[in-house]
Every structure is written in C-alpha cells, then in structure tokens.
C-alpha cells in the first residue's frame, strides 16, 4: 500500500541563453504555486546575470553551462535545436539537487506552474507521459525528458548512460527503460501540457510546457514554429493576470489574437470548463453521435425512487441500455414503470454483499453510510456493463440528467473521470476526499473494475474515491467538464451564525448536463445534522433547474 506522500524538497533545471526570460518566468511560477524550497540551477553567465535583478529567494546557481564548460556527447543529432552537450548538464543538475536536498523535481526551463502537486507524488520516482499517439511514443519516447521527480541518487547517472548508449532520440526515447530498474509512478494529464498534448482540462492544469519567448525557438523548422506560436497564443488568452503582468515586466509578448475580447474568452473558458483547442462549438453532426453505449448504476430499496428518477431523465434523450444492479424489491418497483431497454439485474442479495465484504477488512471505515459491499458492487457493475455493451457511463443513483452527455466523451480515450472542481477555498479537500468523484465515470476498458477494486482495497485513503487518480497509471484518461456531475462539492459552504448555507456562482448551472443530488430525504436520513441541512438546501437549489416534466415525475413517485 502506497500511503506515503513525498513533499518536493527542491526544483532543478538547466538554462542557457536565450532562455533567461523563460527561466525567470518559471521561477516566478514556482514561488507563486507556494513552493519556497531551493531551486538549483545550472546555467551560463548570461542567465545568471539576468536573474540577479529579480532577487528571487533560495536560488542556488552553478555557472557551469558556458560553452567552454560543456562536455562532448557522441550521440546522433536529429535536428538543429537540441544541443547534446547541454543535455548532459541536466543529469548534473538533477544529481546535485538530490545530493543536497534528498529529492528534486527536474524541469525544463520552459515550464510554467499554476498550482502545487505534492498530493500526486507517492512513488520514489515520477515520470511524465506524453499521452500522445503510439507512433509518436515509438519515435520520440513515451515520457517527456523535461519533467521528472526522483529521490534516488543513482537515477541521474543511469539516465546519462541510457542517453549515451541506448536512446534513439536524445535523452528522451530511453526514459521508459528507467522503469526496469526504478520504482516509477506517472504524473497525470494535468501536468506538463505541451504541444504534443490535446484534449485536457484547462481549469485543472498544473503545469504548462510551452515556449513563451519566441527567441527560444527561432531556429526550429517552420512547421514547429507555427505550432509553438499557435499554442502560445492560445495559452495567453487564459493565464492568470499576475502571471501576465510578470510576463509584461520581463518584456515577453502578451498580446493575443483576442485583443480587447480577452476577458470574454477567459470567462467563456471558465464557464465551459473544457479546454478545446480546435473548434469550440461542436457541429450538429458531432452532437448527434452516440458515444455512450450504455449507462450503469447500483442501487437498493433505499434508493429505488432515485433510480426511477434517474432512468426517467435518461430516457428523455436516449434509448440506450441502462444496466441496473439492484435487489429483488427494487427490481419489482422499477418493473412497474415499463422503462424500455432497462437491464435490471437483481443480484444484490445479502449473500452476494457478504461475499464481497469478506476481502475488505483493510478498508478504514470513515462514516456510517458508506458500505464496503455496495462499493465493491460498483466495480462488478462497471465490468458487466462494459462486457455486455462495449462501454458504459457509470453513475450513482442520485443523478439526474438534463441533457445528453455524449458530446464530451473524448475520442481515443479509455477513461473519463469527473473532477469535483472544489471551490478555491476548499481545494485542500482534494487530498482528503479525492480529486475525482466516484459516482460518475465513462470507460470502455473491461479491466477497469478490477483495477479500481485493487485501488480501493489497497491504496485509497477515503473509500473508493480518494485513490481514483491511480487509474491514470493504467488507462489513457481525460476529464468531464464542469457542466457534468454538479453536486454538493461544487458549492461554497460558509457557516454564518453557526448555520450552514450553500452558496454558488451565478453561472454554475449554465449548460448543465447532469446534477448530483438526493431528491428524496430517505436517501440521507442517516447523515449527521449538518450534512442533512446541506442536502436539504442542495435539493432546493437543484430543483429550481429541473424541467417541469422531471419535477412532475419525481413528485408522483411513491415509496
């Protein structure tokens, strides 16, 4: 079980002219993200002299990357802008930082951090997949050479040897071989987003790998320069204002194609949530494509009214199969509605649940309303639905759909997760309860259920949810935008006068696809007083956004 999280104790990098301005921007972003640990920099005189004006704290510099100090590297040169001699200094910088600080986050100088990420580091070494095509991975390497964490003092020298002796593309193509000798985890798709990446969530971005100084890629071939230019302009439309201000101070170009409409673009991105790099408005043909082959859900007699409401809301826009794993009482209840294409499986017997619970003794119980048997049945439910229908959108019983979710299923992705999108003042709950919600995911992978079960039983610190980021280690993963799965976690929760009051942004329900709330009191009767009041308020708020026919159906449901 991997419970130990590792704090980043240093950052390390190499920089030479003309990368001095990007290096200043990187350091500014590291400090802005909350890291005050040492930054160990191997650089040339030009970079060192340039950085002096900023008086950045806790920066340790070695001026060992001047031209006369570079060691020859006998490797096959593939282009005119990778410098093999400078690459050798990367291992030097990393080695120095691990020796001095016990671990290091090595990054290229063209990185920009937007937030901290310690909560993801639970392996002694962490690599950053490109999350690109297999063809690209075969040619350039599956992992990026400008973004890795390590606490092992032998790794830099091993990496150097692989670069000089076994790599087919500079120091990068060989990085997968590091996994043969070292215990390595993988950073999620929210890290290290470069021009090789598409289909990611802008609001959750942790770090950007992008040249913001055009001088740094002036020697690249024209097609590559065009790609850098296009992505640079796209990022500039939505960067935080203090970062844009610093870029202006160091005379990096911040003018964008949107000009005076820049704030409108930022607002639109925040509303949509999803970072679309191409056409922001899907065509009618794209919207009509069915990407969800089935829906799947687990529920029992306590949730039978919510199950009926869920099925009714789905049937408003699709007749795709809905696989419902439930008990005999609920099966009889649902059959009265004659829902079309409802695959009702009454397997939730007492003996079935007891059998599931036998292997859950290591799971720490946190409250009285999460039950191991019901949780483990979710994994079985997903496995069955994928096996029967090819893919499935697994959902909790207390979901109500307002629109068809298919449009946001990304092509060539194996798993779609739903971030909580906690309000800014409650981001720390990502660490305690998890980044992703356990009641909303899409997959076409038959092994997803088994992998998720193993994570729940052996790695997760809050039921099946907190450890869900580990799924990214096994499957190509993307995320649903904010319009999906709007639930309790998306609200601010002040306690004026000792009473809970839910508050939300005005645009929270704009374009909503699905709401996650308990429509009936019997489903939260066991919650504590504060949570009960919160659920009551959430129901009142969500109710206002339900179509009239859904309200009428819910009001007509009897126990």
What do you see in this structure?
By secondary structure, this protein is of the alpha/beta class. The chain folds into 2 domains: 11-229, Spore Coat Polysaccharide Biosynthesis Protein SpsA, Chain A (Alpha-Beta Complex); 288-555, Spore Coat Polysaccharide Biosynthesis Protein SpsA, Chain A (Alpha-Beta Complex), CATH 3.90.550. It is 32% helix and 14% strand. The protein has 17 helices and 18 strands. It has helices at residues 20-32, 45-51, 84-101, 134-140, 155-165, 222-236, 241-249, 262-272, 284-288, 304-315, 328-335, 350-357, 372-389, 429-433, 448-458, 529-543, 548-555; strands spanning 11-15, 39-43, 59-62, 104-107, 111-113, 125-129, 143-150, 184-186, 207-209, 295-298, 322-325, 342-345, 392-395, 399-401, 415-419, 436-443, 477-479, 514-516. The strands form 4 sheets. It has a 7-stranded mixed sheet with strand order 3-2-1-4-7-6-8, sandwiched between helices. Strand 10 (295-298), helix 10 and strand 11 form a beta-alpha-beta unit. Helix 3 (84-101) packs antiparallel against helix 5. The chain is elongated, with a radius of gyration of 26 Å. The protein starts with 10 loop residues before the first strand and ends with a helix.
Give structural attributes.
2 domains, 14% strand, alpha/beta, elongated, Spore Coat Polysaccharide Biosynthesis Protein SpsA, Chain A, 32% helix, seven-stranded mixed β-sheet, 18 strands, 559 residues, 17 helices
Q: Tell me the structural class.
A: alpha/beta
The residue fraction in helices comes out at 25-40%
Low-confidence stretches at least 5 residues in length (pLDDT < 50)? 256-287
Main pleated sheet:
7 strands, mixed
CATH class of the largest domain: Alpha Beta
How many domains? 2
Strand content is: 5-15%
User: What is the distance, rounded to the nearest whole angstrom, between the alpha carbons of the first and last residues?
Assistant: 43 Å
What number is the mean pLDDT?
Answer: 84
Number of continuous helical runs: 17
Total strands: the figure is 18
Radius of gyration: 26 Å
What is the assigned CATH homologous superfamily of the largest domain? Spore Coat Polysaccharide Biosynthesis Protein SpsA, Chain A
In the CATH hierarchy, the third-tier topology of the largest domain is known as: Spore Coat Polysaccharide Biosynthesis Protein SpsA, Chain A
Using the alpha-carbon principal axes, give the shape.
elongated
Strand order of the largest sheet: 3-2-1-4-7-6-8
CATH architecture of the largest domain: Alpha-Beta Complex
């Amino acid at each position: 079980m991997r419970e130990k999280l590792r704090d980043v104790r240093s950052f390390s990098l190499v920089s030479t002219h003309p990368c001095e301005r990007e290096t200043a921007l990187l350091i500014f972003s590291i400090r802005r993200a909350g890291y005050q640990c040492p930054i160990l920099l191997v650089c040339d005189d030009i970079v060192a002299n340039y950085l002096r004006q900023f008086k950045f704290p806790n920066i340790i510099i070695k001026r060992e990357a001047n031209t006369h100090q570079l060691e020859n590297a006998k490797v096959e040169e593939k282009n005119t802008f990778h410098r093999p001699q400078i690459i050798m200094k990367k291992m030097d910088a990393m080695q120095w930082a691990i020796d001095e600080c016990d671990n290091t986050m090595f990054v290229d100088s063209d990185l920009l951090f937007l937030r901290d990420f310690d909560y993801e580091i639970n392996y002694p070494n962490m690599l950053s997949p490109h999350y690109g095509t297999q063809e690209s991975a075969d040619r350039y390497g599956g992992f990026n050479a400008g973004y890795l964490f390590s606490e092992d003092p032998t790794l830099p020298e091993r990496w150097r040897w692989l670069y000089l002796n076994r790599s087919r593309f500079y120091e990068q193509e060989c990085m997968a071989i590091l996994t043969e000798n070292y215990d390595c985890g993988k950073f999620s798709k929210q890290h290290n987003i470069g021009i090789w990446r598409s289909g990611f969530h802008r609001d959750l971005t942790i770090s950007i790998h992008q040249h913001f100084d055009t001088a740094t890629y002036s020697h690249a071939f024209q097609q590559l320069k065009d790609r850098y230019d296009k992505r640079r302009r796209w990022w500039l439309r939505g960067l935080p204002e203090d970062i844009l201000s610093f870029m202006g101070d160091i005379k990096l170009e911040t003018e964008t194609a949107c000009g005076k409409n820049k704030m409108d673009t930022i607002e639109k991105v925040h509303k949509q949530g999803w970072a679309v790099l191409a056409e922001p408005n899907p065509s009618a043909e794209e919207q009509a494509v069915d990407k969800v082959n089935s829906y799947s859900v687990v529920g029992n007699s306590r949730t039978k009214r919510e199950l009926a409401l869920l099925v009714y809301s789905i049937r408003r826009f699709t007749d795709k199969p809905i696989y419902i794993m439930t008990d005999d009482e609920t099966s009889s209840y649902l059959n009265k509605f004659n829902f079309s294409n409802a695959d009702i499986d009454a397997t939730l017997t007492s003996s079935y649940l007891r059998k599931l619970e036998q292997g859950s003794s290591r799971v720490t119980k946190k409250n009285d309303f999460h039950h191991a048997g019901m949780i483990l049945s979710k994994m079985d439910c997903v496995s069955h639905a994928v096996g029967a229908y090819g893919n499935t959108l697994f959902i909790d019983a207390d979901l109500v759909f307002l629109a068809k979710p298919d449009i946001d299923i990304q092509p060539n992705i194996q798993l779609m997760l739903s971030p909580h999108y906690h309000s800014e003042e409650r981001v720390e709950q990502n660490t305690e309860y998890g980044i992703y919600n356990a009641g909303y995911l899409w997959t076409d992978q038959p092994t997803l259920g088994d992998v998720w079960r193993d994570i729940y039983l052996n790695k997760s610190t809050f039921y099946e949810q907190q450890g869900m980021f580990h799924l990214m280690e096994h499957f190509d993963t993307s995320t649903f935008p904010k319009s999906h799965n709007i639930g309790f976690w998306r609200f601010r929760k002040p306690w004026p006068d000792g009473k809970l009051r839910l508050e939300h942004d005005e645009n929270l329900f704009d374009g909503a696809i699905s709401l996650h709330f308990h429509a009936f009191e019997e489903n939260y009767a066991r919650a504590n007083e504060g949570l009960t009041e919160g659920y009551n308020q959430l129901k009142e708020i969500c109710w206002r956004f339900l179509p009239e026919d859904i309200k009428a159906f819910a009001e007509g449901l009897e126990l």
